[in-house]
Amino acid sequence: MLIKPFLETDIDRVKKFTDSEIGDGYYSREELIENQKKSCCSNGAISSFLLIDESSSEIKGLRLAYPPGNWSHGKGTALRDDLWPFSIHETAYFQSLFLAKDAQRLGWGPKLSEKSIDVFRQLGAKGIATHSWKESPNNSSVRYLLNIGFKEIIEHPLYWFNVDYICTRDGKPCRCTAVEMYLTL
Prior knowledge:
Elements: E1 2-5, H1 11-21, H2 29-38, E2 49-52, E3 59-66, E4 91-99, H3 108-123, E5 127-133, H4 140-147, E6 151-156, E7 178-184
Parallel strand pairs: 4-5
Antiparallel strand pairs: 1-2, 2-3, 3-4, 5-7, 6-7
């Protein structure tokens, strides 16, 4: 497996991956283009990464992450930056982390996230905010983030309710809860 920056040339393959792993239409092609651009840092680095199976060239994972100043909210509308230790202008954002089933529980999630964290540290970010999927199998999303040092801030019921896609858990509309979390760097 290979970890590489998410480039504009990867958009169509990332769209196919997100449709199959997250839910049909969770990200539009246009939104993925915007997300890739938001991943471009002032120092020329890219803060979002892909996990690629070198033998098949298939995408097996995606970490979307934005540096401070390149984002203002997550996929949903709820954001409680008044509860964070640092301002939104000093805070990076973890948008999404998704792994194909055959790449889960092999340590790739933390490796993808660490690549983004390294970029954010180089930029001088003071923290990272995220919205974690509470209803993930065995609450794995929240547990994973707690294990790498994030702290829970607040829960947002129906966080993805107005996102026009078919949730892999409960269809449309999505009725899942987001746990807003924060990591101080």
